[in-house]
Specification:
The complex is a heterodimer of chains A (243) and B (208).
Chain A: H1 13-33, H2 36-58, E1 60-61, E2 66-67, H3 71-78, H4 80-96, H5 105-129, H6 133-157, H7 160-168, H8 175-181, H9 186-196, H10 200-232, H11 239-242
Antiparallel strand pairs in A: 1-2
Helix pairs in contact in A: 1-4, 1-5, 2-4, 3-4, 3-5, 4-5, 5-6, 6-10
Chain B: H1 3-13, H2 17-20, H3 23-39, H4 43-59, H5 67-71, H6 74-80, H7 88-111, H8 114-121, H9 127-156, H10 165-196
Helix pairs in contact in B: 1-7, 3-7, 4-7, 8-9, 9-10
Classes of the chains: A mainly alpha (243), B mainly alpha (208).
């Protein structure tokens, strides 16, 4: 729920275009920050984690149509630079299967990688306070997901003018005719204007209420997954810090 | 997700004119479809585009089994129509845009093997990105195999039952934990074998 599941052709060109430009710029910046040997060593792991994220996205929990992202778990294991590349790859593959449009890959990469990067830093920060893996992992995931959902809502909000244009596309042809037929009173015009406006609050209410369930579920699942990894190979959670 | 392997099979085994067409031309075609979908706001134009894509779908003798894949994005588009006041024109506009884009992409995947798509992308995308894409694609098949085995184990441990949500969440998380651990172990082996073969952040394709 924290990334844009919107298909192609809905968001305005300037919005998804800027998403691509920003994503490419950040990818370039991260690629300068990471050592070449480190990248070579971790590329197969990146592939595996990205594949796990794709598979996670395909396992839907039926009644609320929620799927796990595994972005926070991947962010903790891969680190901020590689999670960005991993989400880029995941979004491209998911888009090829109709899970979000091709044009929104850039924006989705920014939102999903924000989730992974925040999860990574929250996990490390909370670990300094408490060494209990389940609450630390749960809180990190919950916070990272809620923040990335709000960023997704913010991105969708930026295109409201465009959705209004789409809503009124078919009315433009008949506008003149309609005015000749009937002259409206000020009250009627005001009412009509309000009903024609994009109902963004409704969208927000649906996304946040479904999202909240998702944050809880993902938080529980991620913390149990990390507990599983922590029991078997705890060093994997701190591999990034050791280099 | 199991349909990944089926799409791959269709792309390799098919023999229609679309299968024989160069991947570069098909990717360009997808670019054109997306451009049309993004810019067009008339229902007639979108119906025409969707009609052309459906015609290509049937001409290329693509299996009807993958047609439902093109309807999957409608699920997400439904959420978006809540923004509008359920106006029929807006809903049709959004649904046709979604169906056209999804049909175009499924058509590309069902007629072009993945390595050819990656090879084409390799010409204008950074090699690290294409390598990551290729490794992810390869890892998906490895993890799918693990997932199939894990599903049996999950079933034997009670699977996912709404009567026992906590137990089910633990089962699901252990399954994903196992999937990730196996993935990490495999990635370490993969790295060692790739290093032995001289891997340096780039995978070379047959025509390179």
């Amino acid at each position: 729920m924290s990334h844009i599941h919107l298909p192609d052709g809905i968001l305005p060109v300037w919005l998804w275009g800027s998403g691509y430009v920003l994503a490419v710029l950040i990818a370039w910046l991260f690629s300068r920050l990471i050592k070449k040997e480190d990248l070579t060593r971790r590329l197969p792991l990146l592939g595996m984690m990205a594949a796990a994220m794709v598979l996670g996205a395909s396992v839907e929990i039926v009644p609320i149509a929620y799927h796990v992202n595994l972005t926070v778990a991947s962010g903790i294991l891969l680190g901020p630079s590689l999670i960005f590349l991993a989400t880029f790859v995941v979004n491209l593959i998911l888009a090829l299967f109709g899970h979000g449009g091709i044009t929104v890959i850039g924006l989705n990469t920014l939102i999903l990688s924000l989730e992974g990067i925040l999860g990574h830093f929250f996990f490390r920060a909370f670990w300094r306070i408490s060494n209990r893996i389940i609450p630390v992992a749960f809180l990190s995931t919950f916070l990272a997901l809620s923040l990335s959902t709000f960023s997704m809502i913010g991105v969708v909000r930026l295109g409201v003018d465009h959705y209004e244009e789409l809503l009124h596309t078919h009315e433009k042809k008949g506008l003149f005719e309609l005015k000749l037929l009937k002259e409206k009173t000020g009250h009627e015009e005001h009412e009509e204007e309000a009903s024609e406006k994009v109902n963004f609050r409704r969208f927000m209410a649906i996304v946040l209420s479904l999202g909240f369930l998702g944050w809880l579920l993902e938080g529980v699942i991620t913390s149990l997954i990390l507990r599983y990894i922590y029991r078997l190979r705890p060093e994997l959670l701190w591999m990034i810090d050791k280099g | 997700m199991i349909q990944i392997s089926y799409l791959d099979y269709l792309a390799i085994e098919g023999g229609s004119f679309l299968h024989r067409l160069s991947p570069g031309v098909k990717i360009l075609g997808i670019g054109f479809v997306l451009l049309w979908v993004t810019l067009l706001r008339s229902l007639t134009g979108l119906i025409l585009l969707y009609g052309i894509l459906l015609l290509l779908f049937f001409i290329s003798r693509t299996s009807l089994k993958v047609l439902p894949l093109t309807f999957y994005p409608l699920l997400f588009a439904t959420l978006f129509i809540f923004i509008s006041h359920f106006q029929l024109h807006f809903i049709l506009l959004v649904f046709l845009k979604v169906l056209s884009a999804a049909t175009g992409v499924v058509l590309l995947l069902a007629t072009t093997p993945y390595p050819f798509i990656f090879q084409t992308l390799n010409r204008f995308l950074p090699s690290v990105f294409v390598t990551a894409l290729f490794l992810t694609y390869r890892s998906m098949f490895i993890l799918l195999k693990v997932l199939e085995e894990t599903q049996h184990a999950l079933y034997l441990r009670g699977g996912f039952q709404w009567k026992h949500p906590w137990r089910s969440l633990i089962n699901l998380s252990n399954a994903f934990g196992h999937l990730i651990m196996t993935g990490i172990n495999n990635s370490e082996k993969m790295y060692e074998s790739m290093r032995l073969r001289g891997f340096k952040n780039r995978i070379h394709y047959r025509s390179d």
